[in-house]
Amino acid sequence: MIVGIETGGTKVVCAAAEAGSPDVPLRVERFPTTTPDETIGRIHDFIRATGAVEAIGLASFGPVDADPSSPRFGRVTTTPKPGWADTDLLGRVATDGVPAAFVSDVVGAAVGELRYGAGRGTSSLAYATIGTGVGVGMIVDGRPIGGDGWPEVGHLLVRRHPDDDFAGNCPFHGDCLEGLTAGPAVLGRWGADASSFPEDVRDGRIAILASYIAQMAYSVMLTVGAEKLVLGGGVMQSPGLLEAVRAALPDLARGYGPASLSSADPTDVLVAPAIADSPGVVGALALADDLLP
Ligand SMILES: [Zn+2]
């Protein structure tokens, strides 16, 4: 058996699958992310209950050090999440003699979507989550970009929408992408989450969020030329938001950029996740499977 673990900022998803079939989780368990001791204890309970484990894949909320050549490989690094800064997550989850892979949660989701979801048949894909925070995992020619906590697309600086007077709530930058579009920014600005906007103000709010997310999408595509950008996370569940991001893109691109972007219709490029439930854990299982001969 192989085990995939996605540790998110609020919940953990553990899954077990047969070696060779990472896209078919046989047993899945979810529990809240609490203290490192309690959370890692529950992960060990899951691994023990799985029986003979041949490999483990771990995709964690970050920032993380996912550079295998770094002495701090496998650690959650500077997170403000209480108790988690500098936690040696991989070291504490890994079991003697069982090979283990370690990536950030967004890279795990990108691997899951590339291999078994919206990116099937492509070799370059980006996965963005716009939820409690904003993060983007990128795979170019089959290889994840970055390792030591980077890239940090969530803090991209964006042009302001003329109708948006919210100052932004990123503790570092105020009105960076995350400070304007993540769940806490939506709630702080409008007192409602993105799925429950009143009908009469919905279109205007969606247009503001879409303008920022489209800027991120265009910047990511210009930088890495990904064949697809998967847009996931809680904020993206808001009805009409994905369509509004697609609609905003041509005005930004103005025909310039990779062929996929300069077309008038980015429907095939900007897509929803195809793995509805935790693409990150499917990616973690796939990376575990890669470790087997
Ligand atoms: Zn920021």
Automatic annotation (TrEMBL):
Cofactor(s) required for function per UniProt: Mg(2+)
GO molecular function: fructokinase activity; metal ion binding
Keywords (A to Z) from UniProt: Kinase, Magnesium, Metal-binding, Transferase, Zinc
InterPro entries: ATPase_NBD, Carb_Metab_Reg_Kinase/Isom, ROK, ROK_cs
Domain of life: Bacteria
Transmembrane segments: none
SUPFAM superfamilies (UniProt xref): Actin-like ATPase domain (SSF53067)
EC number: 2.7.1.4
Coiled-coil stretches: none
Cited Gene3D superfamilies: 3.30.420.40
Record's catalysed reaction(s): D-fructose + ATP = D-fructose 6-phosphate + ADP + H(+)
Entry's family note: Belongs to the ROK (NagC/XylR) family.
Protein name (database record): fructokinase
